[in-house]
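Supplementary Text 2. Reproducibility record for the structural model of the 234-residue chain.

All settings were left at their defaults, and a single model was retained for analysis rather than an ensemble. We include the record here because the model underlies the residue-level annotations in Supplementary Table 4.
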Amino acid sequence: MEKIEEKQQEKKKEYVALYCTDYAELSIKGKTYLENELHNDTDSILFKCNKAMLQYLISQGQKGIKVDFMLMCGKIGFLVEKEAAEKILEFQKVCIEKIKHAPLYESSKVSSQVNREFIKFIRDNYSKSFSNYALVEFYDTCDYTGSVYGECNANYNRLPEGKVYAKGMIDVRDYSKKLGFLNYVEGVNPTDTSVRHQITFLKDSINDGSTSYFGYAVPLTLRAHRGKNKKKGK
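Retained model, structure tokens:
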């Protein structure tokens, strides 16, 4: 009886979504999730995205526009244990203060050094606090005529604010695996870090100021498939 009571009193793990903001800083957005609320919507999300892509391709074809490949993009927030996420943001404040108080002539050097320290702090202390789940929303499409990510003509389409093609929760490993199975290219650029490597992805978002922007490409022609490059590691 005592053991049952102890289990009931055990603190359930809580998770929050960690994003990179417009200011190249990490922040917590959205609600708190309990561990048993983490789930995988990857199949339904990809289905909705691909349905939207197909409709768009038909529309472009009717206009006589040849499409070699398409991008589907949006934002991703990695679900991290709440306590760990809060500690990460606390340390980030310390890092920001260091950068603010650095002499102007050393600001770039100090910023690079502090950002490295910040990522190392996350890796050393909280890498196990990252779940395999993330919140995603897709709201941008872009179709290209020409080689993948090379010199080509692009038609860019962003949905109105608040509108999305698909949103929900994914298992990052399953998401990446499914993209490979479908012969899609993970990343807005083929050299982007896979979302499987959450901390490296956030590091790149901070350094590039890309606000947790991510996506995948759908090559549609042989010419498009030739544009694939190797992916970054961890």
